[in-house]
Amino acid sequence: MSKPLVVVIPHQLGPAEARRRLETGFAGLKAKFGDKLAAVDERWTGDHLDLAVRALGQSVTAGLDVAADHVRVEVQLPWMLAMIAEKAKGFIAREGQLLLEKKR
Fold first, then answer.
1. Could you tell me which of 27, 23, 52 has the C-alpha nearest to residue 38?
2. Whole-angstrom distance between the N-terminal and C-terminal Cα of the chain?
3. Which of 20, 81, 101 is nearest to 62 (CA)?
C-alpha cells in the first residue's frame, strides 16, 4: 500500500449540515460516475464514513471525518493508482467543495 492521500476541505456548515450534504451529494456522484464504478459501499458511524469503491479493477478505500468546520478525507490508493495521487487530491478537493458549497 502507498502512503494515504489526505485532503482537508473547509466549510462553515456545522457537522450535521455538512454530513447531510455529503450523504445527498454521494447519490449525485454515483449517478454522475456510476458507469465507471463497479461497486460502492458506504457505512456511516456518527460523523465518520467508511467508503470502499471498486473501479477499473482496483479497490480504493477512504475514511471521511466530518467536523464543525472541515471534512478530513483519507484515501488509501493501491500502488497502481498512487501515480495519480496529486490528480486525485485535486479531484477530491474540487468535488468535496462542490458538495459542501453554501447554497444561496
1. 52
2. 42
3. 81
Q: How confident is the model at residue 33 (pLDDT cuts 50, 70, 90)?
A: confident
Grid coordinates given for 90: 485535486
What is the per-residue pLDDT for 104?
37
CB 38 within 8 Å of CB 54: yes
C-alpha cell at 97: 467543495
Cα separation, 86 vs 82, in Å, equals: 9
The helix/strand/coil state of 2 is coil
For the chain, percent of residues with pLDDT exceeding 70:
89
Whole-model pTM: value is 0.78
- The residues spanned by each domain of the chain are 5-100
Which CATH number among 3.30.310, 1.10.760, 1.20.120, 3.30.470 corresponds to the domain 5-100?
A: 3.30.310
